[in-house]
Amino acid sequence: xxxxxxxxxxxxxLLRNSRGADFPNVLKVSQDLxxxxxxxxxxxxxxxxxxxxxxxxxxxxxxIDVELNxxxxxxxxxxxxxxxxxxxxxxxxxxxxxxxxxxxxWDCKNNLETLKPIIARLKAAGARTSIFLDPDPEQVPYAVxxxxxxxxxxxxEFARSYGTDRQTEVMSAYKITAEMAVAEGLGVNAGxxxxxxxxxxxxxxxxxxxxxxxGHALVVEMxxxxxxxxxxxxxxxxx
Length: 239
Fold this sequence. Notes:
Layout: E1 4-8, H1 10-17, H2 26-35, E2 40-43, H3 54-63, E3 67-72, H4 76-85, E4 89-92, H5 112-124, E5 128-133, H6 140-146, E6 150-154, H7 156-161, H8 167-183, E7 187-191, H9 199-205, E8 209-214, H10 216-225, H11 227-238
Parallel strand pairs: 1-2, 1-8, 2-3, 3-4, 4-5, 5-6, 6-7, 7-8
Helix pairs in contact: 2-3, 3-4, 5-6, 10-11
């Protein structure tokens, strides 16, 4: 089965917010991406709502017919929103409020007792759960103990090593982590700095990859190639 493409529209929201109006409209762009073939839409609302806003989650849930994935740090406001919206998937990310972008996966071992009730609450609300995870096999058993359905491999290190002499070594950690997760019954997603340049190698290297979440690179590539061509090229890689 081919991995699904979920497009992160945070950069569209950032562009909208920069002018203080509703242009471009996040829902309209999301619907157009879906028409081009995107299998899902991802947003990552942060506490200051500097790009995706909490209101976007409600609007998207009501008006798109593909999976909505909401990412974020599980503070109480975020959890209340997710449990109200009931997205198809909630991906928990351990980013600080002032982080420019996500920059690490969970230390599941040291956050196990924090994550377990959060995961249980989200699953009770009907959301599939995923935990942002570094390519660290030692974290997998603890991720399993949280009760999560999936992990999302944090792929920045892969993207930085792609095409360098570190690529093989770095990719080995991703392969082992993914294999362990699958063996333990977890689904495997991936995201962060994946692009048209590096996605094919990553997709072909990770057995059982279910979903990739791609935003920044895809939006930049759309500036040069257009939306339909860009999405089509991603889908061709994943097929």
